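// run 5 | inverse folding | seed 20
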């Protein structure tokens, strides 16, 4: 039978504000039935052992459900880790500076600005303002997570650390995100080291307080879960990039991703740092930077890189930048021209 979306949503929410729905089987993806007429949303699917993003969707006008499914049995919507009927409400972002923590420090982190007023008020007493100086380690790989960090400014690198001390970057976090994503789903440790690479500031929340707030904050669950899913795409794409693409392409991709998050044409970084982040040696980075500089895409001075032709730098980057940018855009990240 075919069930109108409006009637299903009314049972759960009393409103018609959700833009995409689908009926999902608990068993596997074979239970995904008859999605049609879609626009601007993500479909989140739960299976017994994992959670996935399936695809970008558009407006869904109707869904097909099995004869055995009753509308009254469909769970209420808005919970990222719910089962059965799964939907996403379009996220609205408050303007930067319109919110503060209890001490009056302004908030620029996009996740915190995306919360509903009620949920932000619940989290606000736990937001501790912190400076994030260059090279500060926020948590060690394999160590216990004590805080989740929500940057206002600056850049945090998520780094894989090997037994011999060698490191390679797996992802980066700016004001679009937060560190300590495992804590948002009840885990106590992270396999990645989080280290500040460009000085900034932001807020930290004790993991226990965050997890307690999540128990009664469905929108916060949705937002953090959504970010964690998008971040996992970034990590996977970065791993493929570091393995398969040339150093010039990887350097271009990294510079673009960094500029997206720090909103500045001048990046305070060294060749030694770039070598660590890209999993290569300093001479290789120097050669790659020299190539980009000769093409008049960047200017490099001691301890600083300035992007002077972003469009051509995008052309020099590998396909990975486009893939990561596509999903970053779902988080409200705005890109330099």
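// decoded
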């Amino acid at each position: 039978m075919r069930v109108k979306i409006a009637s299903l949503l009314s049972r759960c929410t009393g409103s018609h504000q959700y833009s995409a729905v689908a009926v999902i089987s608990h068993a596997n993806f074979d239970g995904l039935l008859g999605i049609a007429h879609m626009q601007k949303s993500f479909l989140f699917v739960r299976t017994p052992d994992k959670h996935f993003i399936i695809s970008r969707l558009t407006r869904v006008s109707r869904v097909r459900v099995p004869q055995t499914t009753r509308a009254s049995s469909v769970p209420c919507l808005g919970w990222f880790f719910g089962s059965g009927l799964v939907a996403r409400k379009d996220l609205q972002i408050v303007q930067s500076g319109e919110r503060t923590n209890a001490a009056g420090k302004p908030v620029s982190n996009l996740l915190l600005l995306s919360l509903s007023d009620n949920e932000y008020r619940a989290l606000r007493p736990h937001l501790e303002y912190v400076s994030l100086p260059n090279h500060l380690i926020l948590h060690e790989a394999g160590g216990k997570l004590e805080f989740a960090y929500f940057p206002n400014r600056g850049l945090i690198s998520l780094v894989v650390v090997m037994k011999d001390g060698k490191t390679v970057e797996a992802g980066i976090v700016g004001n679009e995100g937060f560190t300590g994503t495992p804590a948002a789903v009840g885990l106590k440790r992270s396999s990645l080291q989080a280290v500040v690479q460009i000085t900034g500031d932001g807020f930290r929340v004790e993991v226990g307080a965050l997890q307690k707030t999540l128990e009664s904050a469905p929108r916060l669950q949705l937002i953090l879960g959504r970010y964690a899913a998008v971040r996992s795409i970034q990590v996977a794409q970065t791993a493929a990039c570091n393995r398969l693409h040339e150093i010039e392409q990887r350097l271009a991709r990294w510079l673009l991703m960094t500029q997206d998050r720090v909103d500045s044409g001048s990046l305070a970084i060294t060749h030694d740092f770039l070598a660590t982040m890209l999993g290569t040696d300093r001479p290789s980075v120097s050669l790659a930077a020299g190539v980009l500089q000769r093409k008049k895409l960047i200017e490099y001075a001691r301890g600083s890189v300035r992007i002077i032709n972003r469009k051509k730098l995008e052309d020099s980057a590998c396909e990975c930048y486009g893939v990561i940018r596509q999903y970053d855009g779902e988080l409200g990240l705005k890109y330099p021209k």
